């Protein structure tokens, strides 16, 4: 079995341990980041949608930074939105604050009915430098 090269952002490992998943895994020059929601340090959601989207991006950027990457390295994005017809415009007002300049990453947007109390989730694949064995 291949050893997983897991990337943890500072201060949030307990959240991932509690929920039994890795925030990101580095493999073959790529960084596969688990979906990030607008959760506060205690795991609770930001109540306002715009704040929730910003927090999701901040949580994502924390993982990218821990891996030595940034959003500029992101190749593929999947976003999940509860009730996209009602939330899309609000969400997409916030996205350009984090997206950067063209060329943009690829994007898949999915409407869902439930995100464990959240309204927005973002999952990415980014280019990452391969780590050497320590």
From TrEMBL:
Q: Short name of one Pfam family for this protein?
A: Ribonuc_L-PSP
InterPro entries to which the protein is assigned, alphabetical: RutC-like_sf, YjgF/YER057c/UK114, YjgH-like
Q: Which domain of life is it from?
A: Bacteria
**GO MF entry, a single one:** deaminase activity
Q: Which GO terms describe its cellular component?
A: cytosol
Instruction: Please report the name of this protein according to its UniProt entry.
Output: Endoribonuclease L-PSP
